[in-house]
Amino acid sequence: xxxxxxxxxxxxxxxxxxxxxxxxxxxxxxxxxxxxxxxxxxxxxxxxxxxxxxxxxxxxxxxxxxxxxxxxxxxxxxxxxxxxxxxxxxxxxxxxxxxxxxxxxxxxxxxxxxxxxxxxxxxxxxxxxxxxxxxxxxxxxxxxxxxxxxxxxxxxxxxxxxxxxxxxxxxxxxxxxxxxxxxxxxxxxxxxxxxxxxxxxxxxxxxxxxxxxxxxxxxxxxxxxxxxxxxxxxxxxxxxxxxxxxxxxxxxxxxxxxxxxxxxxxxxxxxxxxxxxxxxxxxxxxxxxxxxxxxxxxxxxxxxxxxxxxxxxxxxxx
Length: 318
Prior knowledge:
Number of domains: 2
CATH superfamily of the largest domain: Glycoside hydrolase/deacetylase
CATH topology of the largest domain: TIM Barrel
Number of helices: 14
Largest sheet: 5 strands, parallel
CATH architecture of the largest domain: Alpha-Beta Barrel
Strand content: 5-15%
CATH class of the largest domain: Alpha Beta
């Protein structure tokens, strides 16, 4: 790993370092059987928008990412990552979070054109009569009122990232005023969710209210893991076996609760590769954002090559 990073630093660009990293990674026996689970939130034709809290990736960037990943790994379904494999080939799975209709409209044609079967972690908020996520209101307020007014209203400081972090606290979110004067952003309904399933995509659960699960007590945690799941299964006409923890945050207690709720696997953030010995209910994901393809390749290979934490070097009890 150290040698790979040195090679990257010495190179004039990420693109120039990619062959060095790829060759060194391929020669390393300890990365065999590794996988990387990628996370995307928004996909739009134009890419990043002003005042955004949730990162946006341009449609063409998503296509370039998939093409770049295929040069050194198999792009597979999440089922294949969870099941594990004796293959020496590196594997990458693609996932999306949240109920953003526009993301589905722009991402699915790319996935179908590149023959990728991705997983969409949904809340099913429209199925349960809920309005959009809190960050949509936050982004609207930032765009219309400015960051100073938003800081004052929410009683928080810092930049946009700091404000978004503060909004992980439900008490802060309650200070967000409702959006007025703009059309409601379309969310996925039962028709669109059924369409995802018919297109061969896997549907996972992202919880109904998107709360930080590590902050919940036992009863509230059980409720968050279950409420809304059945409606999502009905709409998609498939079992919902995977869960992506809101804000990417989970611990051993949350993992055990997810397993007890009948999920086959649970996904957090962390950016690390998935080793064959990973705890199935604490699988890390990496969000590359709008990285150029060369940099994506370099960063992905560095993560795949990195040593796994000590706790993953022996098999977990499943």
